[in-house]
UniProtKB/TrEMBL annotation:
This is Uncharacterized protein. InterPro entries: NuiA-like (IPR056539). PANTHER family: PTHR42093, PTHR42093:SF1. Pfam families: NuiA_2.
Length: 181
Protein backbone atom coordinates (compact mmCIF):
# COMPACT_ATOMS: atom_id res chain seq x y z
CA UNK A 1 0.00 0.00 0.00
CA UNK A 2 1.30 3.44 -0.96
CA UNK A 3 1.36 6.09 1.78
CA UNK A 4 -1.19 8.88 0.92
CA UNK A 5 1.47 11.58 1.08
CA UNK A 6 3.74 9.63 -1.24
CA UNK A 7 0.89 9.12 -3.74
CA UNK A 8 0.35 12.89 -4.18
CA UNK A 9 4.11 13.45 -4.35
CA UNK A 10 4.44 10.83 -7.12
CA UNK A 11 1.51 12.21 -9.13
CA UNK A 12 2.85 15.78 -8.78
CA UNK A 13 6.35 14.73 -9.80
CA UNK A 14 5.05 12.83 -12.85
CA UNK A 15 2.86 15.78 -13.85
CA UNK A 16 5.90 18.06 -13.75
CA UNK A 17 8.05 15.61 -15.71
CA UNK A 18 5.68 15.17 -18.68
CA UNK A 19 3.60 17.81 -20.37
CA UNK A 20 0.36 16.91 -22.14
CA UNK A 21 2.06 17.41 -25.51
CA UNK A 22 4.97 15.14 -24.56
CA UNK A 23 2.59 12.48 -23.32
CA UNK A 24 0.54 12.63 -26.55
CA UNK A 25 3.72 12.41 -28.62
CA UNK A 26 4.72 9.33 -26.61
CA UNK A 27 1.31 7.70 -27.21
CA UNK A 28 1.38 8.51 -30.93
CA UNK A 29 4.82 6.94 -31.26
CA UNK A 30 3.79 3.88 -29.27
CA UNK A 31 0.74 3.32 -31.48
CA UNK A 32 2.59 3.67 -34.80
CA UNK A 33 2.99 0.66 -37.09
CA UNK A 34 6.35 -0.92 -36.18
CA UNK A 35 6.97 -1.68 -39.88
CA UNK A 36 6.46 1.92 -40.93
CA UNK A 37 9.28 3.05 -43.18
CA UNK A 38 10.41 -0.45 -44.09
CA UNK A 39 9.80 -1.98 -47.51
CA UNK A 40 7.58 -5.06 -47.45
CA UNK A 41 9.58 -8.19 -48.25
CA UNK A 42 9.01 -9.65 -51.71
CA UNK A 43 7.56 -13.13 -51.42
CA UNK A 44 6.35 -15.51 -54.09
CA UNK A 45 4.10 -17.27 -51.56
CA UNK A 46 1.28 -14.84 -52.37
CA UNK A 47 1.47 -15.68 -56.07
CA UNK A 48 -0.94 -18.50 -56.83
CA UNK A 49 0.72 -21.18 -58.92
CA UNK A 50 -1.22 -22.64 -61.83
CA UNK A 51 -2.72 -26.05 -61.01
CA UNK A 52 -5.19 -26.57 -63.87
CA UNK A 53 -5.55 -25.44 -67.45
CA UNK A 54 -8.78 -23.67 -68.39
CA UNK A 55 -11.40 -26.26 -69.29
CA UNK A 56 -9.22 -29.17 -68.14
CA UNK A 57 -11.07 -32.39 -67.40
CA UNK A 58 -9.74 -33.66 -64.08
CA UNK A 59 -9.64 -37.46 -63.81
CA UNK A 60 -12.46 -38.86 -61.66
CA UNK A 61 -10.05 -40.75 -59.37
CA UNK A 62 -8.29 -37.48 -58.49
CA UNK A 63 -11.57 -35.59 -58.01
CA UNK A 64 -12.76 -38.22 -55.54
CA UNK A 65 -9.45 -38.52 -53.69
CA UNK A 66 -9.05 -34.76 -53.17
CA UNK A 67 -12.68 -34.13 -52.15
CA UNK A 68 -12.08 -34.38 -48.39
CA UNK A 69 -8.29 -34.83 -48.21
CA UNK A 70 -6.03 -32.48 -46.26
CA UNK A 71 -2.25 -32.27 -45.93
CA UNK A 72 -1.45 -32.21 -42.22
CA UNK A 73 1.15 -29.64 -41.17
CA UNK A 74 1.20 -26.57 -38.95
CA UNK A 75 -1.73 -25.46 -41.11
CA UNK A 76 -3.92 -28.28 -42.45
CA UNK A 77 -4.63 -27.44 -46.08
CA UNK A 78 -6.82 -29.23 -48.64
CA UNK A 79 -5.42 -31.15 -51.59
CA UNK A 80 -6.27 -29.48 -54.90
CA UNK A 81 -6.52 -31.36 -58.23
CA UNK A 82 -3.83 -30.71 -60.84
CA UNK A 83 -4.31 -31.06 -64.59
CA UNK A 84 -1.89 -29.33 -66.98
CA UNK A 85 -1.06 -29.90 -70.65
CA UNK A 86 2.40 -31.48 -70.99
CA UNK A 87 3.65 -31.59 -74.57
CA UNK A 88 6.77 -33.44 -73.48
CA UNK A 89 4.75 -36.35 -72.07
CA UNK A 90 6.64 -38.83 -74.22
CA UNK A 91 9.76 -38.25 -72.17
CA UNK A 92 8.03 -38.73 -68.81
CA UNK A 93 7.72 -36.26 -65.98
CA UNK A 94 9.17 -32.73 -66.10
CA UNK A 95 12.38 -31.71 -64.39
CA UNK A 96 12.36 -28.96 -61.76
CA UNK A 97 12.67 -26.01 -64.15
CA UNK A 98 10.11 -27.45 -66.58
CA UNK A 99 7.60 -27.84 -63.76
CA UNK A 100 8.32 -24.29 -62.55
CA UNK A 101 7.53 -23.01 -66.05
CA UNK A 102 4.32 -25.08 -66.32
CA UNK A 103 2.95 -23.85 -62.99
CA UNK A 104 3.88 -20.22 -63.78
CA UNK A 105 6.46 -19.85 -61.02
CA UNK A 106 7.65 -16.19 -61.03
CA UNK A 107 11.31 -17.26 -61.47
CA UNK A 108 11.48 -20.76 -63.08
CA UNK A 109 15.28 -20.80 -63.44
CA UNK A 110 15.74 -20.15 -59.71
CA UNK A 111 12.71 -21.94 -58.30
CA UNK A 112 13.50 -24.00 -55.21
CA UNK A 113 11.99 -27.34 -56.30
CA UNK A 114 13.01 -30.78 -55.11
CA UNK A 115 11.82 -34.09 -56.64
CA UNK A 116 10.99 -36.89 -54.20
CA UNK A 117 9.80 -40.47 -54.40
CA UNK A 118 6.24 -40.83 -53.03
CA UNK A 119 7.40 -43.49 -50.53
CA UNK A 120 10.01 -41.10 -49.13
CA UNK A 121 7.49 -38.23 -48.97
CA UNK A 122 4.71 -40.28 -47.32
CA UNK A 123 6.62 -42.59 -44.99
CA UNK A 124 3.57 -43.15 -42.73
CA UNK A 125 1.13 -43.95 -45.55
CA UNK A 126 -1.08 -40.97 -44.59
CA UNK A 127 -1.60 -39.94 -48.21
CA UNK A 128 -1.91 -43.40 -49.77
CA UNK A 129 -5.34 -42.54 -51.20
CA UNK A 130 -3.87 -39.51 -53.00
CA UNK A 131 -0.89 -41.46 -54.36
CA UNK A 132 -3.15 -44.36 -55.41
CA UNK A 133 -5.55 -41.98 -57.20
CA UNK A 134 -2.67 -40.30 -59.03
CA UNK A 135 -1.26 -43.73 -60.00
CA UNK A 136 -4.70 -44.80 -61.26
CA UNK A 137 -5.14 -41.58 -63.27
CA UNK A 138 -1.69 -42.13 -64.81
CA UNK A 139 -2.52 -45.72 -65.75
CA UNK A 140 0.57 -46.96 -63.92
CA UNK A 141 3.00 -44.29 -65.17
CA UNK A 142 5.75 -43.03 -62.85
CA UNK A 143 4.56 -40.89 -59.91
CA UNK A 144 6.75 -38.25 -58.33
CA UNK A 145 6.36 -35.66 -55.59
CA UNK A 146 7.64 -32.15 -56.26
CA UNK A 147 8.39 -30.03 -53.20
CA UNK A 148 8.00 -26.39 -54.26
CA UNK A 149 9.30 -23.81 -51.77
CA UNK A 150 6.90 -20.86 -51.45
CA UNK A 151 8.92 -18.60 -49.18
CA UNK A 152 9.54 -18.74 -45.46
CA UNK A 153 7.99 -21.83 -43.90
CA UNK A 154 5.51 -22.47 -46.73
CA UNK A 155 5.97 -25.22 -49.29
CA UNK A 156 3.65 -26.98 -51.71
CA UNK A 157 3.73 -30.69 -52.40
CA UNK A 158 2.72 -31.68 -55.94
CA UNK A 159 2.01 -35.41 -56.43
CA UNK A 160 2.16 -35.85 -60.21
CA UNK A 161 2.12 -38.33 -63.08
CA UNK A 162 1.40 -38.26 -66.80
CA UNK A 163 -1.84 -39.65 -68.23
CA UNK A 164 -0.69 -40.08 -71.81
CA UNK A 165 2.12 -39.84 -74.30
CA UNK A 166 3.17 -37.21 -76.82
CA UNK A 167 1.22 -34.06 -77.70
CA UNK A 168 -1.95 -35.13 -75.86
CA UNK A 169 -0.18 -35.88 -72.58
CA UNK A 170 -1.19 -34.12 -69.40
CA UNK A 171 0.31 -33.81 -65.96
CA UNK A 172 -2.32 -34.93 -63.49
CA UNK A 173 -2.29 -35.22 -59.74
CA UNK A 174 -2.87 -33.20 -56.60
CA UNK A 175 -1.09 -30.46 -54.67
CA UNK A 176 -1.32 -29.14 -51.13
CA UNK A 177 0.18 -26.26 -49.20
CA UNK A 178 2.21 -27.10 -46.09
CA UNK A 179 3.47 -24.86 -43.32
CA UNK A 180 6.66 -26.34 -41.89
CA UNK A 181 8.01 -24.40 -38.95
Amino acid sequence: MIHPGLRSFTATKIAKMVSDEDYMAFLDKANRDPNEGYAAPQSNSKTELKATDDGAKIPVAIQEATKDAFYVSDSDEPFVPVCLAWDEGGKGLPDEEELATLIHHPDPANADIEIQDPADWDTQGQYKAIVDAVTKAGKGNDVRVYRVARGGVKVEYWVLTTDGKGANARLVGAKALAVES
